[in-house]
Write a structure and sequence with these properties.
By secondary structure, the chain is α+β, with helices and mostly antiparallel strands. The protein has 13 helices and 10 strands. The strands form 3 sheets. It has a 5-stranded mixed β-sheet with strand order 2-4-7-6-5, with helices on both faces. The chain has a 3-stranded antiparallel β-sheet with strand order 8-9-10.
């Protein structure tokens, strides 16, 4: 858990969203107004999905232009950006066990359950909170807490397994936000002549309602030049990976963008392959095999002589 009173002024959208959800949970524990609880959750989601950094909008005096960020929350964020802390947030958090907020990312555990588990099990250290909860469940301590029982204990143990596997509460973006990030990146990539064509890939290209990472494909005869340009993206915070066929960066808003490059003659095949879905690709490969071909991201090969008999030049 981030120590919210020491977050500081250099905070990105993902961190702000988590902070607001922590405050929402604190309000819920204290029996706060339901509309206020919903307002903080709504603002968290809006900031999490925003295509511009809240800090940048604040610098321009446009913080309230983010949907769901009203005057009250904007004033608290103003204080956060100016001072690195918020007196109102400190007051709301005072007296609540910090470890409880570690449980909010575990499926099925809400604010009130997290608070009760921390209090009854005397879990105090945020850094070991999840491990302490797991140990308590394995010892049968959760089943003895009023309002939980054996079934709840089993569910919590299973949820912790999922949590530890990193498969829970993926912060997916709604399609319009992901599309905006992709289009801005594509416009940036097209600023250099080495980019012949650029398109979104994966679930974004399939226009799925929610998106995880943003995947971009580029057709080019100069892959090194394109990759080097990509990793210098002004909104990039961190280079995650870089290789001969692509790169991955983490944006300042916490979102990940993956780039794949391909020669123009095999670009269409790559678009098809990485657009998916997985089951669709399996079906296409099965059809190709029945006709004596193999299908990959590089094109279609005749299985017998392994020569390319056809390449997709266009999607």
């Amino acid at each position: 858990m981030m120590v919210i009173m020491k977050i500081g002024r250099n905070i990105n959208n993902q961190e702000i969203a988590k902070l607001l959800r922590v405050i929402s949970a604190a309000y819920e524990i204290r029996g706060g107004n339901k509309f206020k609880i919903v307002a903080y959750d709504r603002a968290a989601t809006a900031i999490e999905h925003a295509t511009s950094e809240a800090k940048d909008l604040w610098d321009d005096g446009k913080l309230t232009e983010i949907p769901g960020v009203g005057a009250s929350i904007a004033s608290h964020l103003d204080e956060l950006f100016r001072k690195g802390k918020v007196a109102h947030f400190e007051a709301i958090m005072r007296g609540l066990p910090p470890a409880m907020f570690e449980f909010l990312d575990i499926p099925g555990i809400g604010a009130k359950s997290a608070y009760k588990l921390c209090r009854e099990l005397k879990i105090k250290n945020p850094q070991t909170a999840v491990l302490d909860l797991e140990k308590a469940a394995k010892k049968g301590k959760i089943a003895k807490i009023e309002g939980f029982g054996q079934k709840s204990q089993e569910d919590i143990l299973e949820a912790i397994k999922v949590f530890k596997a990193g498969e829970i509460k993926e912060n997916r973006m709604v399609l319009p936000y992901a599309d905006a990030i992709a289009q801005e990146m594509i416009s940036y990539l097209k600023e250099i002549p080495a980019t012949v064509q650029a398109d979104p890939l994966g679930s974004l290209r399939r226009r799925v309602a929610t998106i995880g990472d943003v995947d971009i494909a580029v057709s080019t005869l100069k892959p090194v030049e394109v990759i080097n340009w990509f990793v210098r993206y002004p909104k990039a915070r961190k280079l995650v990976e870089k290789g001969p066929s692509g790169a991955t960066i983490l944006l300042k808003n916490g979102r990940q963008v993956d780039l794949r490059v391909q020669k123009p003659e095999a670009y269409g095949a790559m678009l098809q392959y990485f657009t998916g879905s997985k089951h669709h690709n399996i079906h296409l490969r099965e059809l190709a095999l029945k006709k004596g071909f193999s299908l990959s991201e590089y094109g279609i090969k005749k299985i017998k002589n392994l020569k390319f008999t056809r390449r997709y030049r266009r999607d």
